[in-house]
Amino acid sequence: MAKPVWSVRFIHQRSPAGTYSYTVPIGKRAVIRSITFAWVNSETREFFVRRNGVVFYAGKPTGSTYGGGGTELRQVLTAGELLELVLQGADTGVMISGYLLDDLAGALRGREHLDYAPLEEGEDPAGSGGGDLDVAGR
After folding, report:
1. What is the pLDDT of residue 113?
2. Residue extents of the structural domains in the chain
3. Assigned fold of 5-109
4. Which of 16, 30, 77, 97 can pair with 81 through a Cys bridge, CB separation 3.0 to 4.6 Å?
C-alpha cells in the first residue's frame, strides 16, 4: 500500500522582519526540499532557517537592487519539531517547501492521538497466537 505524500509550502513570507514558524504535526514527517528567495530594494537581506532553534541554512543575497535565488536540500523534521524562518530585513521574501509524509514511527511519540496499544512482554506481534517456529522447516 502506497504511503500518502503531500507537496507543501511550509512557510511563505515577505517582510516584515521577524520569526515565522511551522510545527510538524503528530503522525507526519516533513522533508524540506526547496528554499527560494527574492528581494526588492533592501540593503539588509539576511535570513536564517532553523530546525528546533539550530540554523541549517543561512541566506545573505547580494548583488543588484532586485534579485532572487534558491537551494535544494533534504532536511528532515519529525513530528513535533519546529521549522523557523528568521527574516532580518525588509523587502525580502522567502518560501520553504517540500513534502509531508505519514510517519507511523513519528506518530508513536503522541500515542494518545492513535488507536494503538503497545505489545505486552512476550505477546506475539503477528497476533496469531501460534506456537514455536520450526527453523529447519519440518
Report:
1. 46
2. 5-109
3. Jelly Rolls (2.60.120)
4. 77
